[in-house]
Write a structure and sequence with these properties.
Strand content: 5-15%
Number of helices: 9
Helix content: 25-40%
CATH architecture of the largest domain: 3-Layer(aba) Sandwich
Strand order of the largest sheet: 1-6-5-2
CATH topology of the largest domain: Rossmann fold
């Protein structure tokens, strides 16, 4: 154990004693702050994808290598840290309120982004919020995730090239695949095509639900000249 890690453990223990935190799932004590809003036991019960999982090569859904449901989606391949349940769900929800990633989630993202095919990416682009939503929230949760993975890949985060030109997020709850796809049609635009032309884009978001949002983003990125568009999300439904 290096000195930096030892200091982190000591600091973590002191903070836990001084400011005890209750697990958002089971209400037990979160004994290590690096786990964020959930305790270690609840993290162990949350499905985190590993190299041994059988998933669809394109959309990353658990199951056969070709699920057949994602053939019309425009991204090259999508991957997630794990399923949108348990500790990952609670972590994704709190990320919409606090622009901070606990150390454990950062480690999970590092593992995910270093796997094939994401590790060949040459440019990191977060899924943008509409300017009005960004002003209300104060930050983009996708950008918070992008900052972590960009450091691993030694790439800058490109928040300028892809923009959101219509706001549809609050109308999407409960919609099916077609409904979600229709709400994001024309919602995104590439304003700096020279920055994405010829690049292998790593498109980053917090949750993959139906894939409609990332597919809409991928479509305009590819039209602007991107070579391929890979997707990484914290969780997938």
């Amino acid at each position: 154990m290096n000195l930096t890690r030892a200091r982190e453990i000591i600091c973590d223990a002191v903070l836990t004693l001084a400011y005890p935190q209750i697990c958002a799932i089971c209400s037990r004590s979160v004994e290590q702050r690096r786990f964020g809003v959930a305790c270690e036991s609840c993290w162990k019960e949350t499905r985190i994808f590993s190299d041994d999982d059988e998933i669809c090569w394109k959309c990353g859904s658990p199951g056969p290598p070709a699920c057949g449901r994602c053939v019309t989606q425009t991204f090259t391949a999508a991957r997630a840290v794990g399923m949108y349940k348990g500790a990952l769900r609670e972590s994704a929800l709190i990320l919409k309120k606090q622009s901070h990633l606990p150390r454990y989630i950062e480690d999970l993202l590092v593992t995910a982004v270093l796997r094939e095919p994401l590790n060949v990416s040459t440019r990191v682009v977060p899924v943008p919020l509409h300017p009005k939503r960004l002003r209300t929230r104060g930050f983009n949760q996708a950008s918070v995730i992008a900052e972590t993975v960009s450091k691993v890949l030694d790439l800058a985060v490109d928040e300028a090239s892809l923009v959101r030109v219509s706001s549809t997020e609050k109308y999407r709850a409960g919609l099916d695949v077609k409904g979600r796809r229709d709400t994001v049609a024309g919602a995104f635009k590439v304003v700096h095509p020279r920055l994405v032309a010829g690049e292998d884009i790593l498109l980053v978001d917090d949750v993959f639900t139906t894939g409609a949002t990332v597919s809409a983003c991928a479509e305009v990125l590819l039209e602007a000249g991107a070579k391929r568009v890979f997707v990484l999300t914290l969780a997938r439904a």
